[in-house]
Amino acid sequence: LAYCVVQFIEKDSSLTPQVFDALLKFWPRTCSSKEVMFLGEVEEILDIIEPEQFKKIIDPLFRQLAKCVSSPHFQVAERALYFWNNEYILSLIEDTSAQVMPIMFPALYRISKEHWNQTIVALVYNVLKTFMEMNGKLFDELTSTYKMERQKERKREKDREDLWKRLEQLELNPPDANNPPRIFPNTPLTQFIQVR
User: What CATH number did the domain enclosing 24 receive?
Assistant: First the structure.
């Protein structure tokens, strides 16, 4: 079937986006061996794709690849990262690095710090190094943006934890029954929490 799809696209390359949409629509979610098989089929298609058709599928393709690279199943992540070992695919990525890097960077950076499998971490470092060599300026921008986003995320998490602590404290020390708080329809809950 994969061979037929490749032959089909070779005959009429304008159908590439529709073929990719169908592949992504039926992408396996729970079976990692099928996911590895789908990645193999995608790579076969990318081997014969024309640059103009590649530009049309960048967004959905690399969003799916980012999910695959983030997979806790090491074979899925490894198979997705091997796309960067294919010279033709790498040349397509290099020509469109301004579109590809912002999609892939957050997943790659997170995995470089958190993935349990050291082989995957090493492959991710190779991909990040390739991105740095392709477009160093964009790489630096994406790095600083990612770090700022992570700081904001940590602050939101800390604020959420603080709010829960204050709510628990409020539950332990209920308000005075003789003087209950007045609640108005559009007043945020945080208005009633006293800072000590």
Answer: 1.25.10.10
Half-sphere exposure of 111 (CA within 13 A, CB side): 29
Q: What is the pLDDT of residues 141-157, one digit of tens each?
A: 999 999 999 999 999 99
Question: Is 70 a member of any domain?
Answer: yes
Question: Residue 105, exposed/middle/buried by CB under 10 A (0-12, 13-18, 19+)?
Answer: buried
Residue 189 belongs to some domain of the structure: no
Are 83 and 41 in contact by the 8 Å Cβ rule? The answer is no
Position 146 in a domain: no
Whole-prediction pTM: 0.79
| CB-CB contact of 49 with 83 (8 Å) | no
Whether 8 is in a domain gets the answer yes
Mean pLDDT over the full length of the chain: 90
